[in-house]
Amino acid sequence: MSQRVLTTESGAPVADNQNSASAGVGGPLLIQDQHLLEKLARFNRERIPERVVHARGSGAYGHFEVTDDVTDYTHAEFLDTVGKRTEVFVRFSTVADSLGGADAVRDPRGFAVKFYTREGNYDLVGNNTPVFFIKDPIKFPDFIHSQKRDPFTGRQEPDNVWDFWANSPEATHQVTWLMGDRGIPASYRHMDGFGSHTYQWTNSAGEAFYVKYHFKTNQGIRCLSAEQAAETAGQDPTSHQTDLLQAIERGVHPSWTLHVQLMPVAEAADYRFNPFDVTKVWPHRDYPLRRVGRLVLDRNPDNVFAEVEQAAFSPNNFVPGIGPSPDKMLQGRLFAYADAQRYRLGVNHTQLAVNAPRATTAENYGRDGLMAANNQPRYAKNYEPNSYDGPVETGRPLAAPLPVSGHTGTHAAPQHTKDDDFFQAGELYRLMTEDEKKRLVANIAGGLSQVSRDDVIDKNLAHFHAADPEYGKRVAEAVRALRED
Ligand code: HEM
């Protein structure tokens, strides 16, 4: 086989890839050395802004197969027939650290799924936790600042992490979750995924349901203790990437079973928890899990930068039959992602192979901008309405309209009868075995005892106490013991 020729980016053969062109043998280098200039200049531009959160992640392709009929609840095309398969791309991630951070850390994990459906891409951008720390998007930048590196010390600071939680009692449920055993998954394959928010499904009769998504791992849940994680992160910072990559290369294809919880719209107003508060779950005895299908990952991307770093998921990418709920956090996210991607990747990021629709084509009147590769076919008009057979609107809303009432203004989240910041955190604590409780208390105390101010410690202890007096007492004792050491 003849050897292929190395070329410049414009395709011209390269004569020498070992020595730069110079003025004489020992002289300075020449500006006419296009190959050298191009190499150095391209190298300087290899990095793009990392994701402002969830910077470190791993991705894989696969498919979703419907196993159970859900057509009574949604007319989403990719869910309309048992046995139907839809190609997917999934990206798992850690949240707080930057691109070079370690995988085996205590942190929620992102679980973002892009379904390439025949009616457009549907992005379900969730986490491995059913709840979140806050319930209003206006707090998100402050929350993330408190968890990432301090602007003065350049380190993650226990003072900031716990100060935010001290002043955000609604975080108690998620903090309990995070500090428990599932706070450090052993790998991306061994964790569940959740849509976390409440979404809306609409069936072909126009009836609407509220829905929560649960991906249950078929590999079984496996977690790392704090000590195991510290060792793993030190030995192989890319442990979760390695595990996912190698499993798929070996032909061991991870899978998850998708279940949903469904709530008729009419039940939302009187449910004892605010169903649009992402710090709360819907107990399964209220709304049982119903199986929908199976997610399988069976192909690694060819290029991590092109397909994983440049992947763009947006909770606002819905398809007919699926829409948002009034969950305030979700509403904030409907703006944030595509905005971040226009900055991080550019306005035409939807044309990149990993982000573009695969089972249909995007046809619209959006044009131009930096790096426009697909500007629609020849003769296509760039305005609408037109008299030239251009694409037209359907007149069919993606999801059912929701009734609203009241006055505009900044409002605290509506309180339902059982809505407080602590009840569900206490329920989670009481569900744990004695060993799990011991580890939970030790993990919390390990972090909280490093906080420099007693008032910040006390505010946090009050939250655990409000969740369950025994929980609060045990954390207080463990913190005291560590601080007296
Ligand atoms: C108001 C609250 C939130 C805001 C403003 C927000 C904002 C963002 C932004 C700007 C990104 C980076 C997007 C990109 O550059 O491509 C991101 C990534 C991500 N967020 Fe959020 N987020 C919020 C809450 C949440 C919640 C509640 C979840 C999970 C239920 C979540 C899951 C994710 C995931 C999985 C990613 C990574 C997606 C990927 O793999 O590319 N976020 N978030």
TrEMBL record:
For this record, the Gene Ontology CC terms, alphabetical, are:
cytoplasm
Q: Which domain of life is it from?
A: Bacteria
Q: Where is the composition biased (Polar residues)?
A: 1-22
Q: Which Gene3D superfamilies match?
A: Catalase core domain (2.40.180.10)
The GO terms describing molecular function are:
catalase activity; heme binding; metal ion binding
* Gene Ontology process terms (BP): hydrogen peroxide catabolic process; response to hydrogen peroxide
Q: What class of enzyme is it?
A: oxidoreductase
Checking Pfam families in the record gives: Catalase (PF00199), Catalase-rel (PF06628)
So which cofactors does this thing need?
heme
Chain positions recorded as heme binding sites: 337
EC numbers on record? 1.11.1.6
- InterPro entries (UniProt xref): Catalase, Catalase_3, Catalase_AS, Catalase_clade1/3, Catalase_core, Catalase_haem_BS, Catalase_immune_responsive, Catalase_sf
Stretches the record annotates as Disordered: 1-24
Q: Which keywords does this Swiss-Prot/TrEMBL entry list?
A: Heme, Hydrogen peroxide, Iron, Metal-binding, Oxidoreductase, Peroxidase
Q: Which family does it belong to?
A: Belongs to the catalase family.
Query: Would you tell me the protein name for this molecule?
Result: Catalase
Q: Which organism does this record belong to?
A: Streptomyces fumanus
Q: Which gene encodes it?
A: katA
